[in-house]
Prior knowledge:
This protein is an alpha/beta fold. About 50% of the residues lie in helices and about 10% in strands. The protein has helices spanning about 5-15, 35-50, 65, 70-75, 90-95, 100, 115-120, 125-140, 165-180, 215-245; strands spanning about 55-60, 80-85, 110-115, 145-150, 185. About 35% of the residues are buried.
Amino acid sequence: MSPLFLIPALLLASNSLFAYDRADYPQAFEPDPARFASAIAEFEATDAANPPPKGAIVCTGSSSMRMWHPRIKEDLPGLTLLPRGFGGSHYTDLIHYLEALVFKYQPRALLLYEGDNDANYGKTPERIYQDFKFLVEQCREQLPDLRLYIIGAKPSIARWAIAEQMQRSNAMIQDYCRAKPGFTYIDVWPLLLDGNGQVRPELFMEDQLHLNSAGYDCWTAAIAPVLLRNEVEFELNKRTLDFVD
């Protein structure tokens, strides 16, 4: 049997090969990260068939990241990107799958979007912040030189009722990033609002939650200048090293 067909079975049989468990993380993993086992297995199969480069920028997080995949390389031109978004995820899901989604790739940088689903699930801003803090500290412990770009949770029509809670967790995460070298907070919130501070409906799909093409234009306008400005130097260094190798 081909090794590719064995990967999903191995992952489902032994999450300990690549995941944090409840003994590692002091908070509860909720909802159950096992709901993403098949998605992680698909990434593993893709990697086995076409090994990705080391030193890339891993782009991961929930559906806003996952649905950016088709155009992310066009929106962030000239950068070595590894899209690994998995829709519906929380910070705790990414914590659980850190080895499979981040560590094994030995990235130079991490572009992250989470927090949207966490707030909708009912997690408090304080809990979301603690999950974020644990996640990034584990990343830095494993990859001390990793640069982290944190996209703040976006507003949406569907979740406007919890906008205040989302802004509170965003503010705590932003303060953390300001105080830490190598951390950059990217605020997409203002670009998705109109002059009256209301969500712009023309930027969203019919579900009033996910961005449409015009929404991703605004999203990219906030994110691309930061990534391109900060990562060009490292991209050039990476290409030089790849050429030497």
